[in-house]
Amino acid sequence: MARTKKKDITAELGLNEQTPREIVEELDKHIVGQNDAKRSVSIALRNRWRSRKLPDEMRDDVIPKNILMIGSTGVGKTEIARRLAKLVKAPFIKVEATKFTEVGYVGRDVESIIRDLVQTSVRMVRQQRTEEVKEKAAENATERLLDILVPEPKRSTNPLGKLFGNAESADEPKQVPAEGKTSGRDFVKKRLLSGKLEDEVIELEVADHAKPMVGMFSGSSLEGMGDNLQDMISSVMPKRMRKRKVTVAAARKILEQEEAEKLIDMEEVAEAAVELAERSGIVFLDEIDKVAVKGSSSGPDVSREGVQRDILPIVEGSTVMTKYGPVKTDYILFIAAGAFHTAKPSDLIPELQGRFPIRVELKSLRKEDFEKILTEPQNALIKQYQALLETEGVQLVFEDSAISRIARLACDVNDDTEDIGARRLHTLLEKLMEDISFNAPDMKEDERKVIIDDKYVDDKLAEIVKSSDLSQFIL
């Protein structure tokens, strides 16, 4: 029975039922343009769903087609991955290739990618199980709160009575009648459930989560050993407890979490999490161009090529040992991305190139794209500034002429200096809004509606954009 339940939960977490068109429409709400990249990731996700419907003997032969995104910084590579993570109920991690070095050099071990992915998977499955036992955990937490608020009457014991058997102490109080205790407990329970005791302060005994010294292993190639050593020590050493004074509301959250952990079978969670990571995991490998090597390798380039060779077995399919058990990487989807300004995809080692059969080039953003980015997404930049200043009672109105002018200036600065894509809008808007943001709390009532037009934009930004020296330093 437990086996069937695990399968259902894993399928529920790991699959996205949306069609490619629906996935693209969802991404369109947050990302402007880049339709080719959106189509590629939507097809990759749908193929996951299709492979689950195949017969067992064929399913094992269908491996994900990894994607390589090529495009300048700020065109939407990372944003597509970030939004995909929210869209897909699957373990997802984003890592930078530059953080890793080959064995023998200082840096992270590439196998930590899979360990991090499994850790994310465990967190997802545990959260799912916690939701399932939420009601029962809440009931148990309420009972524990009542034990603290309505404690058992203490009995004073006679040492001689313990020594000679059943001799009773003369000091021992009469036991409280059961009905008296029950009625008192019921009264407190009603007040507790009605929320009348939320601000009462009680003393609660909680586990002391002091970090052990094995944390020094983190960030080195011995990090896996550090995890295992930490688990071994925590399982042998008894939990240290300490007393905290907290409100009833805070105590309830702590106790609900403790009770949920008691109700969850962590071995079953680990087993389900490993399967979820193997079948549905997605790894976004950013800055892949930074480990590409041009021409002959020497000096630090040796390490870069070594990183590619270390990444290769993980991408093509191998087994990585984690503290939750061995994890096969054959069916994990890898999405690599890079600007490839100084290097080309062909500078990657041939074996790694072959493992990314789908290549998508993301286009540089133009004026029309900047205008859409400023206004169309659900939480567009202009909407964010309007919401932020509304908290101060300031109404911010952007005219179409101002939006058009900001987009043109962003385009010009990107052309004249470095092309940093949509990130240029952040620098321009922050400079444009500087005076308003500073003066907002002190504005008078008749000044609290601010209209921004193209003239205002030119007053604040035109001179900076004209001077290439100023724009390089300020924007």
Question: Structural class of the helix and strand makeup?
Answer: alpha/beta
In which range does the helix fraction lie?
Answer: 40-55%
Across the major sheet, the strand order is: 2-5-8-1-9
How many strands, which pairing sense, and closed or not: the largest β-sheet? 5 strands, parallel
What separation lies between the terminal Cα atoms? 61 Å
Proportion of β residues? 5-15%
Radius of gyration equals 30 Å
Shape descriptor: flat
Unreliable sequence segments: 1-11, 167-171, 212-221
E-strand count: 11
Q: Main traits of this protein?
A:
475 residues; alpha/beta; 5-stranded parallel beta sheet; two-stranded antiparallel sheet; 21 helices; 11 strands; 11% strand
Question: Can you describe this structure in just a few lines?
Answer:
This protein is an alpha/beta fold and about 475 residues long. The protein is built from 21 helices and eleven strands.
What would your notes on this structure say?
The chain has 475 residues and is of the alpha/beta class. The protein is 53% helix and 11% strand. It has 21 helices and eleven strands. The chain has helices at residues 2-14, 20-28, 35-52, 56-59, 77-87, 112-132, 134-149, 159-163, 178-193, 223-236, 248-263, 266-280, 301-316, 350-354, 367-375, 381-390, 400-416, 423-432, 434-439, 454-466, 468-474; strands at residues 67-70, 92-96, 201-207, 241-247, 282-286, 319-322, 325-328, 333-338, 358-361, 395-398, 449-452. The strands form four sheets. It has a five-stranded parallel β-sheet with strand order 2-5-8-1-9, sandwiched between helices. A hairpin with a 2-residue loop joins strand 6 and strand 7 (325-328). The termini are far apart.
